[in-house]
# Entry
Amino acid sequence: MIAAQFEYSAPDTVSEVVVLLKHRPGARVLAGGHDLLAQMKQRRLSPTLLVDLRNLKDLVGISPAQAGGGVWIGAMTSCAAIAEDAWVQANAGALAEAALSMGDAQMRNVATIGGNLAYSDPAADLPAALLALDGIILVSGPDGARTIPITDFFRTAHVTALQAAEIITGIELPAAAARSASAYAKQAIPSNCYPLCGVAARVTLAADGAVAACRVAATGISDHPLRLATVEGSLEGTIPSAEAIAAACGLAGQGITFTSDLYGSGEYRAHLARVLARRALSRAVAQAGGNYTG
Amino acid sequence: VVVAESRAQAFDALQAIRVDYEPLPVVVDPREALKPGAPQLHAEVPNNLNAYIPYGNKEAAMQALDEAEVVVELTTYNQRTINNPLEPRAALGEYDPATGDYTLHATSQSPHDHRLLLALMILGVPMNKIRIVAPNIGGSFGTKGYIYPDMPLVLFLAKELGRPVKWVDSRAGLMRSTVQGRDQHMAAKLGGTRDGRITSFTCTSYANLGAYPSTIGPGVATAMVGRNVTSVYDIAYPFCEIYAVFTNIVPLGAQRGSGRSETTFLIERLIDMYAQEIGMDPAVVRRQNLIRPDQFPFDNRMGWLYDSGDYPAAFDRALELAGYAQFPAMKAEARRRGKRLGIGLAPFVAISGVGPSARMAKEGMLGGTWESASIRVHPTGEVSVTIGSKPHGQSHETTFGQIVADELGIDLSQIEVLHSDTRRAPFGQGSYGSRSYSVGGAATYRAARALKLKVCQTAAHIMKVPESEIVYEDGKVFPRSSPEKAQTLQEIALALWYAWDIPPGMEPSLDVTTFFDPPDFNFPYGVHVAIVEIDEETGEVKVLRHVGVHDPGTAGNVLILEGQMQGGIIHGLGQALMEEARYTANGQLETPSLYEYPLPRSTDVPAFELALMQTPTPHSDLGAKGAGELGTVGAPAAITNAVCNALADLGVRHLDMPLTPEKVWRAMQQGR
# Structure
């Protein structure tokens, strides 16, 4: 099909974007457009105004964060750029892997991290990685700029903590601790490449080889991406042997209502969450310098 | 119908229309549709039964089953699939009020046939007032051989509105309105001896035709299944019955390998079960039941006379290429690494080259199925070849050009191959059922031979030597004793153009048209071997290797042939592992776009290991058999057999396609 008629604007500054959004309730933000344009072509969405962020060049790029040794990723940075970035690959492996696993090359060249988060598909890849990496979301709106911890961001499918007329400007990732690594494991739906289940894990090892800190987050399995806190809790403070990891991952899924749909049952997703959590954790532990290499 | 100035305007108008539907009862399963009290789709078709056709001798087959030492049974659903050519359908209609001429530009596999149907049965206008132009179309896989409502509609509207009217489908439209494939609910029994001799085979299948019959009749869903169930095997007592039933879903049509793929799947699954039951190697069971070369022509007892081949040689070649003998060691070694491997075999035969016209009508496939070619040598030397068949991705320009280039001894660059315009090409039928090269190619070959004969006769007259003295070589003719007197094809064409001095009684001009109706079908065959690896934790299936030995008779262009085999195997892999058109109980398509409906990607595709055998068919002058459907016929059976082989030690007996990770995972759970 073809989209209904709409107006188009491509402002040069964030504040102009915010003003437009505030005064035009029927407006939508256009970033990479992979989700929005498809919906518009099917006339599921018919915004009266598209506010294109393409001229906000300041929102493109990956650079050191203002403080703390972490990194800032502009909201308009493409998934391809994230997957290829040396810092991300070395310090946020789960994010590089998640970005690389999305769609196909053409799609990754255009899709943006900000758009991916704002659209908040319950099976988006990047949120799992950002949850595991303790990302912080930077937003701007009519009341100025603020930050949202990623754990507070996803509410339910396509519903986030963004307020009216707010847009994402960037994401901050904290510096990676010593003996820390992360990984992303995914089983893709063959038609659309979204994860049937995707699990990101980050592990920081203490001097004695025990798990000092651990993050495990899953996507595709329920109405929004989420942390698997029981798995994390079970592993922290233990030596991450194959047995310990397997035992911890056996707890994945506690308290979660798993999605059942055309692509797979909740039971299978729950199984995949356990298997993929183990695979992601095992790789993270191995890369962090742990003994386990299974 | 909305007609607008632009696409956007058309969609705006569509959105403005509100339709109130009054839902009627719906039936989506053909077995349910046959039951008393089921919703009736068409007043003229009691019980929704479009056709019931038995093949073979039921009584004899039942008795043989009763007396068999071993009987294995399988009930399986060969799932409905959605054809996804690159280009969806399109139609553009024009009408000239001054002449009354209609022109339809359309994505048609059979422009001549569609022209006849439009004239005779739909629009009621003289056939010479309809011209169809079907340019290079982006693939079909069998979907574009049918008349669709848009074809007459754009012509009608063009006349009504006094200007051209265009309709172009979208992918979403294709998923919902272009014919779909397969969809056979099959129940079969195989009877045999304890030492592996198959004696009987019976099958009852319910074909889901969807809501409307196809414009070529029920043959694809019936004869192509019923007559093919014995496949490459010599089975004394076969029987198959097909119920072709209307239901409230998208109409069924041809899909690359129709009928042959479903039946290959059925018998190959049953042979693996039979081999397991009697404790024999499935390769040995297959080998000893294959039709032998000395049995051709072979009456398969279901109405088909197989023409030629060496099935055991192809089988042995495939096993050798796949390293079948070494597989148990490979499997055990992989097992130690935590990998679960399986191997699957699937020999097959795939009737092609439709066909003898009178015979086709009896098979429930309505339409003449001869083919034509016309070769014209211009007095300036260029050669125009017009053919009734048309490509939708098969490279007719190359292969048909090569037939003429080889026969006339001229360079391919001198030849243009024209097709797909009913005003320019001679009457023809189209491309479907793997027929173009073996049937249309034979017509082209015959035209080239006739043309060459005319050249030699003319040269003999001009050069004043007996015709037996004339030599034709590399596009030139000369008397055997005086090569220096050679004249080129162009010079002879010019002589025939002026016709000042040509043999008495000969018609002027170097221009020949032939028609060819094959004496019988042809029967290409092949053997596939798939090796798969299964992720024990997630159930994901990866096809590691796919070996294919194919015998499409005498090969034409081997590069194009190899491309067909690869594409066909990928197509079959799609059905085996992922594709399925799913409908809700009230007939709504749950997989209405490529977002929901998967197709194989490059990363799903294994290494191909292909080999070619060439046993000529006596039913085409070229010795060529069909080729385009072979890959799709063997691959689903080979891959499914491989997956079931990998899971056999867990007690998994059979899995229906598609072999999704969850399905395989569940089977492993239940098996354990």
Chain B has a mean pLDDT of 96.
